[in-house]
């Protein structure tokens, strides 16, 4: 069995969970409230009302075209994962319909339904985009825009969704279209917020006489990279070394725990980095370093 196949099998639970979250948003908020938020389903509804072509046929044709497009324009991995995600949506919706049939809107207010739908859907999209997959449909267009025009995913979703929303003016009233545009805009903002949260890292800078001990912990125990900078203090003009490293929030807490445990005198600054490009093959750790589990 190839490495890619093994990786895909391992990611199936995460992809399924992400789509389940999305299915919850659609079942409990989108369908009952009859919201028109920029999506392929929304576009299909508009075309259906204008041409009388059956809605399932339209959704199938458009999604199939976009899935093929994603395979060639984005990549094999993204295409296969998105196909899987798209295929399990209908069964998930059928299960939810069986367990919790919805005869009316859950919140009984279109604006509240819109907010709940966008929040939950954005979280679902962020999970899937994080795994190089998508919910299909509009997300594929957003991913293509993101890849070839270097527009962040949140803005890509907003742009693609807004264009689709505007087509609804031919069959719906202005109020419905405006609600859809607002929902699409919020979707882009919230998605970007979740993506930044998933991708953000801490840039940690440490100045200490025990820099070698800290460097060893970062590199050997936390499996992270570190850079040493020779510096000179402005007050005493004394030469020192500053360690800089990028790490997750959990890893930063491990570092602080280590410094406290070893009673190291250090000056530490930390800031959040939302975008990181490039990969040096250093992935970090998934659990607490053994050195912190040992009793001193």
From TrEMBL:
Entry's transmembrane regions: 12-33, 53-74, 81-99, 111-129, 149-172, 178-198
Keyword Cell membrane among UniProt keywords: yes
Membrane topology (UniProt): Multi-pass membrane protein
Keywords: Cell membrane, Membrane, Transmembrane, Transmembrane helix
Gene Ontology CC annotations of this record: plasma membrane
Domain DUF2179: start-end pairs: 224-278
Listed CDD domains: YitT_C
Principal localisation: membrane
Localization: Cell membrane
Pfam families: DUF2179 (PF10035), YitT_membrane (PF02588)
PANTHER family hit by this protein: UPF0750 MEMBRANE PROTEIN YITT, UPF0750 MEMBRANE PROTEIN YITT-RELATED
Record-given protein name: YitT family protein
């Amino acid at each position: 069995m190839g490495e890619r196949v093994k990786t895909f099998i391992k990611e199936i639970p995460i992809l399924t969970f992400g789509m389940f979250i999305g299915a919850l948003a659609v079942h409990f908020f989108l369908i009952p409230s009859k919201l028109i938020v920029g999506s392929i389903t929304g576009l299909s509804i508009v075309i259906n009302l204008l041409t009388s072509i059956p809605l399932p046929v339209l959704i199938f044709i458009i999604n199939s075209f976009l899935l093929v497009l994603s395979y060639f324009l984005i990549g094999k991995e993204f295409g296969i994962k998105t196909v899987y995600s798209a295929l399990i949506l209908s069964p998930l919706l059928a299960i939810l319909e069986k367990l919790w049939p919805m005869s009316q809107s859950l919140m009984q207010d279109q604006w509240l339904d819109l907010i709940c739908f966008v929040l939950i859907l954005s979280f679902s999209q962020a999970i899937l985009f994080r795994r190089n997959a998508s919910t299909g449909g509009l997300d594929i267009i957003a991913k293509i825009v993101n890849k070839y025009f270097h527009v962040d995913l949140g803005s890509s979703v907003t742009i693609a969704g807004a264009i689709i929303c505007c087509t609804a003016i031919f069959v719906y009233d202005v109020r419905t279209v405006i609600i859809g545009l607002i929902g699409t805009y919020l979707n882009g903002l919230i998605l970007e917020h979740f993506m930044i949260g998933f991708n953000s890292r801490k840039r940690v800078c440490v100045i200490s006489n025990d820099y070698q001990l800290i460097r060893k912990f970062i590199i050997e125990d936390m499996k992270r990279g570190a850079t040493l900078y020779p510096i000179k203090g402005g007050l005493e003009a004394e030469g020192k070394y500053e360690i800089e490293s990028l790490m997750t929030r959990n890893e930063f807490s491990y570092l602080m725990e280590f410094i406290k445990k070893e009673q190291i005198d250090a000056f530490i600054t930390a800031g959040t980095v939302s975008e990181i490009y490039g990969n040096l093959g250093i992935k970090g750790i998934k659990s607490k370093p053994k050195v912190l589990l040992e009793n001193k």
